[in-house]
Design goal:
By secondary structure, the protein is α/β, with parallel strands linked by helices. The protein contains 10 helices and 10 strands. The radius of gyration is 20 Å and the shape is globular. It binds glutamic acid.
């Protein structure tokens, strides 16, 4: 029998829904450098489950920009859109544990319900928690509406999932003295899949990290709180626990995190105004 590969595995997992900026460069460079220093592997994963926002030209730009930065990665690259069966299987396991339910409320209905409840809590990303509950609709009505072809989101029954996993869920974060307590309940009944897509960011990321044998998840601090949901899903699905490191974000001159939505300068823009790859690496890591 071949011996399992003992090398640590790192990955950079961008979504091709825009051009990469210095924040992405920081993640990619840190992963590649940590892999190199540990004699490990560096993988690139294309997180393209959202067919409405992901574009082939952005995927092509990812390869071009990373190569420009001087990075190299293993081939073939895993593209999430090609692995829906793996996510469907994980979803089926959660469904078999009775942890998932369809919810039919539109975004507008959710907004109205939240507006009617001043002081309603938000999740760690600042979005209001789902203001309805599984108990608010009986199973027969859910089945009927699903059968009628209505659009729906499949949500995790968070209270049930947390009760099943029990107390003491945590993760190991590089640089922290002890385990970081996970608080998945702070996210409420998160969306795990949708009618047209048998997965979500949270579900695909834990499935892929396990399938690819990822041992070290190195990513921006903006994803630190999501690790609570990832650890919960890993426990529910019997997946291994990677070591996490959430690095500081690259901020712009106003102190805002870089983002496509605020028009942050892309790596391509930098290159076009004559910034060299060495300067870009320095800006990303500095
Ligand atoms: N695809 C995610 C993003 O672009 C990153 C996923 C991860 O590193 O866990 O923000």
């Amino acid at each position: 029998m071949p011996r399992p590969d003992p090398r640590p595995v790192f990955r950079f997992a961008p979504s091709p829904n825009g051009l990469l900026h210095l924040g992405h460069a920081r993640s990619a460079l840190l992963n590649a450098e940590m892999a190199r220093a540990a004699g490990g592997r560096f993988l690139l994963r294309i997180e393209d489950i959202d067919a409405t926002r992901c574009r082939p030209e952005y995927e092509a730009a990812i390869y071009e920009d990373l190569a420009w930065l001087g990075l190299d990665w293993e081939r073939p690259v895993r593209r999430q859109s090609e692995h829906m069966d793996a996510y469907r299987a994980a979803l089926a396991r959660l469904e078999a544990m009775d942890l998932v339910y369809p919810s039919f409320e539109s975004r507008a209905e959710i907004r109205r319900a939240v507006a009617a409840r001043p002081g309603w809590s938000s999740d760690p990303d600042g979005a209001p928690l789902f203001p309805f509950s599984r108990a608010a609709m009986d199973e027969a009505e859910r089945r009927e509406r699903q059968a009628a072809g209505e659009p729906y989101a499949l949500r995790l029954d968070m209270a049930r999932a947390v009760a099943l996993v029990g107390e003491g869920l945590s993760w190991r974060e590089a640089g922290e003295a002890g385990p970081v307590p996970a608080d998945p309940a702070a996210w409420g009944d998160v969306v795990i899949a949708r009618k047209e897509t048998p997965t979500s960011y949270h579900l695909s990321v834990v499935v892929d990290d396990a399938v690819q044998g990822v041992t070290h998840v190195v990513r921006g601090a903006d994803l630190k709180a999501a690790t609570s949901v990832h650890r919960l899903l890993q426990r529910l699905l019997d997946l291994p626990e990677p070591l996490y490191r959430h690095h500081a974000l690259v901020l712009d001159e106003q102190g805002c995190k870089l983002s496509k939505s605020i028009g942050s300068e892309s790596l391509r823009d930098l290159r076009a105004r004559g910034v060299s790859a060495a300067e870009a690496r320095h800006m990303a890591l500095g």
